[in-house]
Write a structure and sequence with these properties.
5 strands; 31% helix; DDE-1 domain-containing protein
């Protein structure tokens, strides 16, 4: 049952064994099997042991259904056949990340009963993320670290092996910007040569920090897909230019301008110029968000 995710606890195992022993006539209801029997039973069957189950999140459990896994491998086979990668494991890479805590958890030690054993720990610590990749023949890409902090310091990589790089984030976790940099500036340096007839397959999971890596395209990222003008920052306009574009001109304002004064000036100008733009219309056309008071 443990193989399909429904393992029995020691107590449940004893209850089942006791019921079976009662059914066979070896025990009665008032004398069930004990934990000593379970210990002896496990010693006679070394292939079995008491294990602590690994935690599996509900989202991951849903993604491991037979239907989902079957569809995944069908799509994978389609890609491998399309790009002739079935016999080229060196061109198939997998990328994953792992969060590592620097908090030290001391193991149990043997000591006298009269002593209070202590161990030095780091206290509360943040997470350091390691992004790693490798291909199907076992070649590894140098790791990429994400440290918690606001500024990357060279000392964080002291003693690192050749090719290791790192960045910082406030939480120590990877994000879409860091993952994008990892793919385009770190991983790409270790991929085999590519051309129209020799592709490289890079696989990674659907973590939210990966999803922003251009769901619209397949690696390698093609910057020509998105025009430069679409990435241009929003522009700000002086108030005078906005008012001029809205045809609100030659309006004498008192020293202290009240919202009602501006509204009256706009209404007066609208009456004189039927094609005048509303201030909100002008901001919308320029792609600028505004707060209406």
């Amino acid at each position: 049952m443990a193989e399909i995710g429904y393992g029995y606890t020691r107590r449940e195992t004893l209850n089942l064994a006791s019921d079976y022993a009662v059914h066979l006539g070896y025990r009665d209801q008032d004398h069930p099997l004990s934990f000593r029997w379970l210990k002896n039973f496990l010693s006679r069957w070394p292939a079995m042991k008491v294990q602590k189950p690994r935690e599996l999140e509900a989202v991951r459990a849903k993604c491991t259904s037979e239907e989902v896994i079957d569809r995944y491998f069908k799509e994978l086979k389609t890609i491998l056949d399309k790009y002739n990668l079935n016999d080229q494991p060196g061109r198939i890479f997998n990328v994953d990340e792992k969060g590592i805590t620097t908090d030290y958890k001391p193991p149990n030690v043997v000591a006298g009963t009269n002593f209070k054993v202590q161990a030095v720990v780091t206290g509360k610590s943040k997470t350091v993320t390691v992004i790693g990749a490798g291909n199907a023949i076992g070649n590894q890409v140098p790791p990429f670290f994400v440290f918690p902090g606001q500024r990357m310091m060279p000392e964080l990589l002291d003693g690192a092996t050749h090719g290791v790089q790192g960045r910082v984030s406030l939480s120590g976790w990877s994000n879409s910007e860091i993952f994008d940099e990892y793919m385009k500036e770190h991983l790409i340096n270790y991929l085999p040569a590519r051309d129209a007839s020799n592709k490289v397959l890079v696989m990674y999971d659907g973590h939210k920090s990966h999803s922003a890596f251009k769901k619209c395209g397949i690696f390698p990222y093609n910057p020509d897909v998105i025009p430069e003008v679409a990435l241009a920052p929003s522009q700000s306009f002086p108030v005078d230019d906005v008012l001029t574009s809205a045809s609100v001109v030659d309006v004498e304002c008192p020293t202290t301008v009240e919202p009602s004064d501006v509204a009256m000036a706009v209404e007066e100008e609208k009456a004189n110029s039927p094609n005048v733009l509303e201030p909100s219309d002008f901001f919308d056309k320029q792609g600028v968000k505004y707060l209406k008071i």
